[in-house]
Amino acid sequence: MLKTDTQIDQTHIWHPYESVLHPYKHPLVKSAKGVYLELEEGKMVIDGMSSWWSVIHGYNHPRLNEALRNQMEKMSHVMFGGLTHESAIELTKKLLTLLDDSFEYVFFADSGSVSVEVALKMALQYQVERGKKEKSKFLSFERGYHGDTFGAMSVCDPVTGMHSLFSDVLHKNFFAPAPKSEFTSNDATKDLEAVEAILQEHANEIAAIIIEPVVQGAGGMRFYSPVFLQGLRELANRYDTLLIFDEIATGFGRTGRMFAYEHAGVVPDIITLGKAITGGYMTLGATVTNQKVAQMIEQNGNVLMHGPTFMANPLACSVANASLELLMQNPPFAKIEKIQNQLKTELAKCEALPNVKEVRTLGAIGVVELTHRVDMKTATQSFLENGVWVRPFMNLIYIMPPFIIEEEELRALTDAIYKTAKLLQKSLK
Ligand SMILES: Cc1ncc(COP(=O)(O)O)c(C=O)c1O
């Protein structure tokens, strides 16, 4: 007998971080518009996840659709080796306008993880070309997350990054404790001492420090003090290592600034971008660096050895241009502040639940940390029944809605989070 679409999904398709042998029944999305996903049988749910940080302007946006259509009529793709095109040039202009003036060179990669691979490679090649081949490791952080490819995995938190499973293959790097100083704190001395202790002993082996600025995302949804980043910049200079900021999740407004490094007023040598760069329409990453790094990489006549087939894909670049144009023409920061205030006020009532450890908000990010792992089946069912799409992980219920979300829609999300956390508490007994 022929299998139904649901059966095909359940028997043949791998979904992220899920069993292929004991699958969930995944809700099927028929279409999406604004902040709504249309599920089978016409049920509409409000998306609290922006499809993992990316859909900042909402789904099916007329300006983004138009950009893609226009580009498609010209060409969907052309190789970037030996050729160039207008959409990549325009996107480079926009990125360099938005980023700090010290950034000068853009490498377009096919995803966030690949842009991290390129950043690591840039740092390694920088050290090799200046005769410091022994500086071949990275200093990263517990609770950090930088992607699922092998280089990126080697700088992810050793436990959640499953280092023990891949220990024979993964590059051995150094890990400092996750920064504990709170976002509002002006003192990160203790956190910085732990980093310096590693640098004192191993700086001669370390090519670069890599960190997600201000928000550690998929490793625990933790916010920390921008003062820590100022200290890291100083330590990187003093101990002669490069500094990489992974802004794949935080870039393009999410934390209330265009880039999270702006909270700290310091810039890294290399920055990685992805996710919201295309407004969540297509996969695209970028690794951007400064004169110092680019000069050194080429000083002996070599070049950066990386070149994906779909590098600077014109469709992805064109929709990224439209997305950045929207951000530049109508800066979303007042709206993001409004979202932050509403999240703060409305999620506060979760603090009274006995199974809630902490509630935290920053920019358009709201996090409810529970004292226990989330029962995904119960939570997913509860969210859908309450008309929203929220996808918890570990003990975290979190949302990062599209910036266009209206007050009532955000209230539906915060109400659903409260009800679901309460329900999860009951089912613990
Ligand atoms: C901070 C950070 N870096 C890298 C990545 C990997 O990006 P991608 O999933 O596009 O490969 C992610 C994805 O969640 C991320 O949050």
Characterization of this structure:
This protein is of the alpha/beta class. Helices cover 37% and strands 17% of the residues. The chain folds into 2 domains: 5-56 and 332-428, Aspartate Aminotransferase, domain 1 (Alpha-Beta Complex); 64-329, Type I PLP-dependent aspartate aminotransferase-like (Major domain) (Aspartate Aminotransferase, domain 2), CATH 3.40.640.10. It is built from 13 helices and 16 strands. The strands form 4 sheets. Strands 4-12-11-10-7-5-6 form a 7-stranded mixed beta sheet, with helices on both faces. It is globular. 46% of the residues are buried. The mean pLDDT is 97. Residues 111-113, 116, 145-147, 212, 217-218, 246, 248-249, 274 line the site of pyridoxal-5'-phosphate.
Please, how many helices? 13
Under CATH, the topology of the largest domain can be stated as Aspartate Aminotransferase, domain 2
Strand order of the largest sheet: 4-12-11-10-7-5-6
The poorly predicted ranges are none
The major β-sheet equals:
7 strands, mixed
Give the name of the CATH architecture of the largest domain. 3-Layer(aba) Sandwich
What labels would you give this structure?
binds pyridoxal-5'-phosphate; 429 residues; 37% helix; Aspartate Aminotransferase, domain 1; globular; alpha/beta
Question: What does the secondary structure layout of this molecule look like, with pairings?
Answer:
Elements: H1 5-12, E1 29-33, E2 36-39, E3 44-47, H2 50-53, H3 62-74, H4 86-98, E4 103-109, H5 112-129, E5 137-141, H6 150-154, E6 174-176, H7 189-202, E7 206-211, E8 215-216, E9 222-223, H8 226-238, E10 242-246, E11 270-273, E12 285-290, H9 291-298, H10 314-329, H11 333-347, E13 356-362, E14 365-370, H12 376-385, E15 388-389, E16 396-399, H13 407-428
Parallel strand pairs: 3-15, 5-6, 5-7, 7-10, 10-11
Antiparallel strand pairs: 1-2, 2-3, 4-12, 8-9, 11-12, 13-14, 14-16
Bound molecules: pyridoxal-5'-phosphate.
The site of pyridoxal-5'-phosphate has 14 residues, from α5.
